[in-house]
Amino acid sequence: MKRNVNQGIFLAVLAAALYAVNSPLSKLLLDFMPPTLMAGFLYVGAGLGMGVIALVRKLKGRVPTEQAMTKGDLPYTIAMIVLDIAAPIFLLLGLSHTTAANASLLNNFEIVATALIALMVFKERISPRLWLGILCVTLSCALLSFEDMASLDFSVGSLFVLLACVCWGVENNCTRRLSDKDPLLIVLLKGIFSGLGSIVIGLCLGERIEVLWSVVAVLAVGFVAYGLSIFFYVHAQRLLGAARTSAYYAVAPFIGALLSLIIFGQMPQYTYFIALAIMAVGAWLCAKDEPLFKKRNQRKEADE
């Protein structure tokens, strides 16, 4: 059992590290591609990459051992796809109006959204330690959301990033319902339908591709930050649950924020570092929370 927990933690952190490149690289690429089209191509890149991996797996004769999709999975699948269309668009709109470092840290609000929805809708347990961690993350997000603390000038970019986090929080719980299915199939569904949906919306809004090489660059970022990241994230959810996995995934914004500071060389305001410290405490508290499934298994073993 401990080996499964450690494996789940490793996969969650690996998924976080892969996703961390998203904010800084997407911020750079927004100069060459409009946001809605970029959101679509990010997911298409994930789908194409996973399609290649699925093809290699098939050629090697490897048969997936996971359960097949059923009609009962359809509502969660549709919700997952719709939310994956909305979330990246909100994130990229947010990146257009705030710094990549801020956006990276604000991504941790996904922990709050995931945990609260897991509690209210799917009845996952939230311990006092996790509640305290959620409080710290929320406070940190509040600090990051105000551009000028003296005048309390709220950042529109931060609002869009937080909306993206709420969408991904709901989506995480929908994906959790599908975590016993083939992760490759889940990413393929996300990539094909969410990606094409965003591209159609972008074209209807009048967005156009002006720099062809940007398509290849966005597809590559999508494969790493969305494809491989989601693939490992789904595996981690199977072992840890939705709330627990999102807590370990919290290292992604810190990696992303560091990359953003290195790439853009912009020294943030003092409130950023205060928020960073509070966010670190909150993420640590969330990560140290004991997963519910472990307690359940301990009770089950005791009964046997």
> Spans with pLDDT under 50 lasting ≥5 residues?
291-304
The helix-and-strand class reads: mainly alpha
Amino- and carboxy-terminal Cα gap = 16 Å
- Give helix % range: over 70%
Number of helices: 14
Side-by-side strand order of the widest sheet: 1-2
Strand content: under 5%
Task: Round the mean pLDDT to the nearest integer and report it.
Answer: 80
Shape type: globular
Radius of gyration: 19 Å
How would you sum up this structure, described in words?
With 304 residues, the chain is an all-alpha fold. Helices cover 76% and strands 2% of the residues. It has 14 helices and 2 strands. It has a two-stranded antiparallel sheet with strand order 1-2. The model is unreliable at 291-304 (pLDDT under 50).
Provide a compact summary of the structure:
The chain has helices at 2-19, 22-29, 35-59, 74-95, 100-106, 109-120, 128-144, 156-176, 183-204, 213-240, 242-248, 251-264, 270-287, 292-303, and strands at 146-148, 153-154.
Layout: helices, strands, pairs:
Layout lengths: L1 H18 L2 H8 L5 H25 L14 H22 L4 H7 L2 H12 L7 H17 L1 E3 L4 E2 L1 H21 L6 H22 L8 H28 L1 H7 L2 H14 L5 H18 L4 H12 L1
Features:
disordered C terminus, 2% strand, two-stranded antiparallel ribbon, 304 residues, mainly alpha, single chain
